[in-house]
Amino acid sequence: MAITDWPIAERPRERLLALxxxxxxxAELLAIFLRTGIRGRSAIDIARSLLTTFSSLSDLVGADPDxxxxxxxxxxxxxxxxxxxxxxxxxxxxxxxxxxxxLSSPRAVRDYxxxxxxxxxxxxxxxxxxxxxxxxxxxxxxFRGTLTQTSVYPREVVKRALRHNCAAIxxxxxxx
Length: 176
Fold this sequence. Notes:
This protein is of the alpha+beta class and 176 residues long.
């Protein structure tokens, strides 16, 4: 049954506007983003299928674009929309970091790094350079590795830290 045939109070978009985004399920939010279904499957059906196939939202947003395109109901347009949404989220988080409030907890650091590093198909070593108040001066991918390893050169890390004149550093390494 098409979502347009549902009672108005049960439709995801109308529920979001009436109740707020936090009250919707992952599938409902994803369905709003997808906008349309395909013959015989609503956007909610496609969203549920995607969440089952990729097992979590983080796996879905970090998925290889080719794998996304192959999912039923996903094509180039919807895959491009999802990738654009993720990039907007990354940029929003980067803006928050530049304002200085975003790194007030380990969870904020984890969320930022998860968003930034998700979907990479190789290992990387990242440094976040902080001032004395733990505000982000810069965040850089210092070393890029292969599928299974990354070489880190301490001398290069120290040179970058001195260049940024930072007071603290957060290191992260992305493993596949």
